[in-house]
Every structure is written in C-alpha cells, then in structure tokens.
Amino acid sequence: MALATGMRVPARALLRAWARLPGAALGRTEPAACGGGGVRRFGNQRVLVEPDPAAGIAVMKFKNPPVNSLSLEFLTEFVISLEKLENDKTFRGVILTSDSPGVFSAGLDLREMCGRNPAHYAEYWKAVQEMWLRLYMSNLVLIAAINGASPAGGCLMSLTCDYRVLADNPRYAIGLNETLLGIVAPFWFKDTLVNTIGHRAAERALQLGLLFPPAEALQVGIVDKVVPEDQVQSTVLSVMAKWMAIPDHARQLTKNMMRKPTVDRLVKQRDDDIKNFVSFVSRDSIQKSLQIYLEKLKQKKG
Amino acid sequence: MALATGMRVPARALLRAWARLPGAALGRTEPAACGGGGVRRFGNQRVLVEPDPAAGIAVMKFKNPPVNSLSLEFLTEFVISLEKLENDKTFRGVILTSDSPGVFSAGLDLREMCGRNPAHYAEYWKAVQEMWLRLYMSNLVLIAAINGASPAGGCLMSLTCDYRVLADNPRYAIGLNETLLGIVAPFWFKDTLVNTIGHRAAERALQLGLLFPPAEALQVGIVDKVVPEDQVQSTVLSVMAKWMAIPDHARQLTKNMMRKPTVDRLVKQRDDDIKNFVSFVSRDSIQKSLQIYLEKLKQKKG
Amino acid sequence: MALATGMRVPARALLRAWARLPGAALGRTEPAACGGGGVRRFGNQRVLVEPDPAAGIAVMKFKNPPVNSLSLEFLTEFVISLEKLENDKTFRGVILTSDSPGVFSAGLDLREMCGRNPAHYAEYWKAVQEMWLRLYMSNLVLIAAINGASPAGGCLMSLTCDYRVLADNPRYAIGLNETLLGIVAPFWFKDTLVNTIGHRAAERALQLGLLFPPAEALQVGIVDKVVPEDQVQSTVLSVMAKWMAIPDHARQLTKNMMRKPTVDRLVKQRDDDIKNFVSFVSRDSIQKSLQIYLEKLKQKKG
C-alpha cells in the first residue's frame, strides 16, 4: 500500500477544470501550431495534436491517408508527440482517434516490410515496439475513440488504452486478424489481447483472425462501450472525466503494477524480437507473398 | 491425480450432521465462552466466534465498532481465532460476517499507520500479511456473508473466501478503492482480485478505485451471489452445505493447487514488502496526508 | 509477426474441397481398413477413424464400451491414430466424438490404477500425459462433438480441442469432477481448465467437482456451443469449415504460442509427475478405496 502525493490534488479542482473543456474539443479547427504546451493545435503531417491545457487533456488524431497505416514516419511522429504530452505536466489524459472517420488505423505498413534492406526492417520493427512500449506504459490516461475499422496494429493501439469506446457501425470491426493474411501476431500483441479478453477468447480470436463487429466486440470485451457514432465524442469526454478524478500518482502506480510484467517480457528480449522479425521478413517466400499482396492492393485502388 | 483419504468420509454422513444445524445459527445469543471446541460461543472482544460443532461449522463475526476497521488488535485476535478453528478437527467450514450489519469491514486502520514508530508500522503490516496468508490458504471452507459495505481491506477479506454472498442493499458496495484515497493496493491485494475477476476487470477496477454496488458486483464477479438482506443467512448455510459435501482432503489439495503460486509470491518477498511499507508510510508527506484525513474523519463524527 | 507459407493456400480452394464432404461423414458405415491415407475408415478396435481425404478432415470415434474409459490400450491406440493423421498432410482437421452416444468418455480407467505393479502405474500415467501433450499441441484443427457425458478425463480431452460443441441433453454433463471421488485433478488438468474458463471459475469448479449440464456449461465457457442432439454433426462441420479457412501455418504457430507455456510446465517435470502418481496410487489406503469403488461399480452392473 502506498499513499501517493496525488492525494493532495483534490478531485473537485480537477472537475472544475474539466467543466471548462468545450464539448467540441474533438472537432476543433484552430490552425495548427508547432510547440509543446500551447493552447492551439500542434503536431505535424501525420499526427494532429489538439491540446486543451485548461482541461489537462489532448486529442491525438491519426492523419496518414488513406488508412492511417503505421508507417515508420507515422510511428516516429506519433511517439515524439506522445512523449511531448507525457513530459508536459499540463496534460493528464490523451484521446486517440482518427482524423478520417471510417478507418481508425489499418495497422502495420506492409510497404515498410517489402523490398527494403535488413537495417530498414530492424529500424521499422524497433519503432513498432517503441510505440507499444510507450502506449502500454503511459502515465497518461489513454482513451481510444474508435471511429473506424481497427484491424491488427490498429487494434493493438486501442488495446493499450485504459478504455475503449467504439462507434456503432457494422463496418468498424476490431481485432487481431493477422492469421487471415497468413501472418502470426507477435507474442506481445498476444499478451496485450490476453490481458484484455482472457486466454480462451484470445486463443480463438487469434487463431481465427477474428474481426469483431461492435456488438460482438462489446460482448467479448475487446472494447468497453459501443455508442452511436455521433455520441463517441461526448462519451469519451465523460469517461475521461471519471478517470481524471482519480489522483494521478496512485492511478499511475496501479497501472504500472498491472502492466509491467507484460512489458518486461518484451524489454528482456527486445533485440531478439527484432532479429526474429528481420530474419523472417527477409525470406524470399515472405517477400514474394508481400509483393503479391501489395500488387493486389494497388489494383484495387486503380 | 491424487486419491485423498477424505474419500472415506461419506458425504451422506456429513449431510446428516448438517441437518442438525439450527437455521438460526448465525444469530444465536448464547453467552460467550473461551475455549476451542465448546458448543458455545467463544472468542474475545473484537471477533465473536459462534461454533456449531455438530454441523462442523463456525461463524466469525467482526465486532470492532464503529466500522470493523482492521486494527492491530482486531487482526491479532482474528488470526488467533481462525487458527484455533483451523486446528480443531471439529470444524470444516467457517462463515465470515459482521456483527453490525451495514459495515462488513472498512478495511485497514489508518490510525495504525499514523504517528507511530517504524517498529509499529512493521508489526502492523506483518499482521495484515498474516491475515491474508491464513485466510487465502485456509484448509477450511470459507464463505463470506457480506452484510455491509466492504471497501479496501474489507473487500480483500471477502476475496480470500471460497464463496461470497452479498446482501442486496445499494449501500453495500464492495471493491478495492485505494486509489480514491491516493493509495495503491499492494501487489497481493491486486493478485487476489485478478484471480477473482480477471486481468482487465481488475485493471479498470483498481485504477478507478471502483466500489461495486450489488448488481454490478455480481456482474463483474467480485461476488458470487446477491440475495435480499434477510436471505443472506439461509443462502450462506445452503451454499456451505454444498461445499461441505466434498471430501475435505481432495478439496483442500485442490484449493492449495489453485492458490499456492499467488501466496508464494508474497512469502518470497515478505520482508521486502514490510520494508517498503514502513519506508513509504514513514514519509513526512504521507504522514501529513494521513493526519489531515483522520482529522476530517473525527470532524465528521463530531 | 511472421508471414506463413500457408498464405499461399487460398481459402477458396479449401472451401471447394470442403463442399465435397458428405453431410453424413460422422455416421458413415464403410468397412474398416487399416492404413494411413485411404478414403475408407481405418483404425482398430477402440478408436474408429473415418477419414475424408477430399475434405482434409477425419472423425475419430471413441469405441471402448461401455463408457469409453481411457484404458492403457485405448490411449495407446488413440495416440497412434492421432499421430498418423498428424503426419499425413492430407488431413488438416479432426473431429473427436463418441461411437456410443450417451457417453463421450468417462475418463481415466480406475482398473489401470488398482492391483497392478509400480511399473504398470508408471506406464499408464505416461500414456495419459502423452495423450494430453499430443492433443493440446496438435497442429490439426481439433473439434469436439460432445455427444454424451464427459466427466474428468473425458472433459480433459474436450478441453484440448480448439472448439467444443455439446449436445443439448441434460444428462450430458461436463466437468473435472475429481474431488467428488476424493481425487485431485493433476496440475495440468487444472491449467487446461484455467486457460479455458479462467482462474475463479476453475477454482470453484475444481473444488466442488462441478459437472455442468449444457446450459451452465455454455455459460461458464467450458463448451463453446450447445445445439440439439441431431444438429451436433452439422454444427461441427460448419465450425470446422471456418477453422479450415485459416492458413494452416499461421494458425498452427498461433496455437503453439498460446499453449506452449502450459505444455512446457508438464514437459519440464514429466518424470516427477509420474513418480508422484506411482507413489500416490501405490498407497494401501488408496488401493483400498479404489477396490471398494470398483466393487460397487461391478455390483451396479450386476
């Protein structure tokens, strides 16, 4: 048992600050501005950050068209933006969402895994690991406003949050569907899913590559709440208010206690995990499969 | 696979003994008497033990007004009483309940953690550990008749039981609400909760310090049954009958197999856990926080 | 993440093969024939194997009257048949079911544990371990068509499958009921159950030796689907089709990732587990208990 200094931050004061948060925070249209703690939107090309310092929260919007795939550049920018918010005491909560409703994130960018050299594959995989490590151990309250499909890596980002709200649209399926593409989810993707929905449900979902539509997603527990699409924003804000009412330090230590053993498993074998990925993705058979798959995607678009 | 000698105790005989148990066992008013195996109530000031040797069960009633907080004296008496029952072959099942309906137990006694010396803090924390170790590994069938609120340490006591029946009263909330006070639940509180409601539900409940009212408590699985307040007693007796029908030795070995890994985690680092507690609670900032909190409690009463 | 070569097996081709599977596959009556990959039924006295090479699946029917108990001979034949299917690339999925509806399997054969010498007990226990190890780590899609009661070892066989369909008959209860007989389930039985229904439900089910009738079995998650008895076959075939649509290699690696830590726990201490069993079952008290129990069973039949 540990009495945290956070105890001295009265919850009432937080709620007062909260009351100043405009309801339209998620959809604000101020001009973008670079910088850490400004009142206005900052960020860069692929991750829009809309800070609300008065409320102590920020919205991070994925903007990597067409499907918010997790390219190396996206991941790099995302981690930098997250780190900024993490280090700025102004912010206590962050909402993850997509700038283009319809797709939360399509997951890993296969183009980073095809036709490059081993050094690139290693750099890419390290960036994917880094994104997960930062999110899963974040001291911030993280809430996912899932306003689009979130397969594979997109699902993983949701799973690292403290709470997940999914828009009730039958096309917004969520899950780790790697096997459908002949791919195996890394063990830390698996661990994150097991922590969320339990061993049996994870075993079935991972083997079958299940993508859960909203009602099933709620039932299996891969999301915490399903609401009509136009209520995602208000729901997320009201959920955030509840989480922000908890003294930070106590909440952070508790979160750390729950998640550290899972994170340590990757930290301990991070280099091996990179080596495995590089050696695997460098195989001729895999490169061929990826090329064929990417060709098909191009034809679809054409 | 292990054939237990308990096999030779025919369940039918147990049920016959059971039939002799008066329905009013939980509310008997015989004069208290000290001693291990007497038919009459024994115990002390803070823990009333109502034995029913014919039935093989005893009721342990918390009586530490006003809120059954887990003071050092209460914990010492509780562990002694439990050990007596554990060592007396007459008793195979024990019911934990409160002598003052309305509060099951308010949990740890903050007065034991404030304004004392390090030796006292160490002694107190060891007693809290001891209570958990004895309860969680008890060879007895333990059933919680939760007839009042059971936050924090009160919830922990319930969680160590084999079955939890909660009275259907909206004021009887149950949960590990440590973060609400800026406190972090120890890892073995956390482990006990994860074992009961799973990783995800525990992560959310612990971070938010959730106190579940009866319907939610049942849904999340932190209790096994919710019944009207006047049916708690009869329900607990009928549940106990089912558990007592199982050969003791086989049941005990099974319980041990399920719980030992969790218990071993504390046993391995018990001294470190005490040191951590003492060092933490001795901090000036924590002492101040506790003083302020206790002052407020006094004013409320005044 | 691992791209599997299975990616190159188009799911559509599998479904075409599937379409050739006769609906009556589970009840075919061709004459038995020994041999690995023939179109006709092969097998032996106690385990009937009905292969459907065109569909890539086989049905293994337990035929060890009167209750499909897991005798040493049954286990040996079962493991050999399973290994044959495992090594024959023709087969990707296997359905486990009983040739005599009413009993799926009554579990371990107590006659193997009574009145024999230590060498026999050791051989028997090794065969039980082998059955579990092979089933739980099988590369095949395994689906249980549970058309009868499946207590103890029968339940364990179901639990090793990837999916469980139970016939909706109140007499077809399923569970690890060892404690009812004064017996303790081995730790790897326990691990398999915990993986399936979670820690708390397993703790309660194992201590009480619960046998779940269909509706409760579904609710606790010990089976995945309950259907009317005459729909078990069609349901299992349609479930199998879904699992066969997943690229094999990716699915197998995923299954392995989920189950290997559990399997490794037994593999690491397999000899100790055998020694424990032999020493335990050799005790006079246990031998007496078993003799009395077997006598009673004989009288029942007489």
TrEMBL record, chains A, B, C:
Species of provenance: Pipistrellus nathusii (Nathusius' pipistrelle)
Similarity comment text for this entry: Belongs to the enoyl-CoA hydratase/isomerase family.
PANTHER family (UniProt xref): ENOYL-COA DELTA ISOMERASE 1, MITOCHONDRIAL (PTHR11941:SF45), ENOYL-COA HYDRATASE-RELATED (PTHR11941)
Record-linked SUPFAM superfamilies: ClpP/crotonase
InterPro entries linked to this entry: ClpP/crotonase-like_dom_sf, Enoyl-CoA_hyd/isom_CS, Enoyl-CoA_hydra/iso
Pfam family for this entry, one: ECH_1
Protein name: Enoyl-CoA delta isomerase 1, mitochondrial
